[in-house]
Design goal:
Belongs to the EMP24/GP25L family. It is found in: Endoplasmic reticulum membrane; Endoplasmic reticulum-Golgi intermediate compartment membrane; Golgi apparatus, cis-Golgi network membrane; Membrane. Pfam families: EMP24_GP25L (PF01105). There is one protein chain. The protein is an alpha+beta fold and 228 residues long. It folds into two domains: 109 residues, GOLD domain (Jelly Rolls), CATH 2.60.120.680; 71 residues. It is 43% helix and 29% strand. It is built from three helices and eight strands, in the order H-E-E-E-E-E-E-E-E-H-H. The chain has a four-stranded antiparallel beta sheet, covered by helices on one side. A four-stranded antiparallel beta sheet has the order 2-7-4-5, with no helix packed on it. Strand 4 and strand 5 form a beta hairpin. It is elongated, with a radius of gyration of 33 Å.
Length: 228
């Protein structure tokens, strides 16, 4: 007779652990992020679309990695066509939008430049895209957790906090890589400019030196004709 209560207790613990794992997986799917790097030709405008749900959050961060001036125009429009944010001639920016149902459009505009193309990096972070309508239904199938003093909600909160911090760490590392790429492109561009102007200055100095030597020698030449 004592075997049955023990078996039920073990079964309840197993159901609790399995249910907690499913809840953790469902919580992990609430936030998504993605990044993209592309080349924006001179005189062109590129637009992207992101489908969002109501009461979700859209965060976009962009940087100009390479190109003359390291600047671009940026716009975000709502599904109704309303302009939400606009940046002009900026090298980077971060914007967050509390969304509604529909497709959001964000555009990068390089029409003000007729010569230089731009390499642009941007990252999208989508929060609360897939929220379970009944997140507490799993509690109906968990029994006997009071006996073992298991606080599944605390475990789930801890997992969510760890997941959020790991996601933030990944986001920061991605942004730092973008900054590093932009700084490297800027340094290489400055290195090429320094080398080019160094060669030009060296050529000019050699030319000036040759002209000075010729002028000095011409001052001491005796151009008078000697008659014999």
């Amino acid at each position: 007779m004592e075997v049955v209560p023990g078996f039920l207790c073990v079964l309840s613990v197993f159901v609790a652990l399995v249910s907690d794992r499913f809840v953790a997986l469902a919580a992990f799917s609430q936030s998504m992020d993605s990044d993209f790097t592309f080349t924006l030709p001179a005189g062109r405008k590129e637009c992207f679309y992101q489908t969002m749900k109501k009461d979700a959050s859209l965060e976009i961060e962009y940087q100009v990695l390479d190109g003359a001036g390291l600047d671009v125009d940026f716009f975000i429009s709502s599904p109704s066509g309303q302009m939400l944010f606009s940046d002009y001639h900026k090298s980077d920016g971060v914007h967050t939008v509390e969304t509604e149902d529909g497709d959001y459009m964000f555009c990068f505009d390089n029409t003000f430049s007729s010569v230089s193309e731009k390499i642009i990096f941007f990252e999208l972070i989508l929060d609360n895209m897939y929220i379970d309508e009944e997140p507490d239904d799993w509690k109906e199938y968990v029994h006997g957790t009071d006996m073992l003093d298991m606080k599944l909600e605390d475990i789930m909160d801890t997992i969510n906090n760890v997941k959020a911090r790991l996601g933030k760490s990944v986001q920061i590392q991605t942004v730092l890589r973008a900054f590093e790429a932009r700084d490297r492109n800027l340094q290489e561009s400055n290195f090429d400019r320094v080398n080019f102007w160094s060669v030009v200055n060296l050529f000019v100095m050699m030319l000036v030196s040759a002209v000075q030597v010729y002028l000095v020698r011409s001052l001491f030449e005796d151009k008078r004709k000697i008659r014999t």
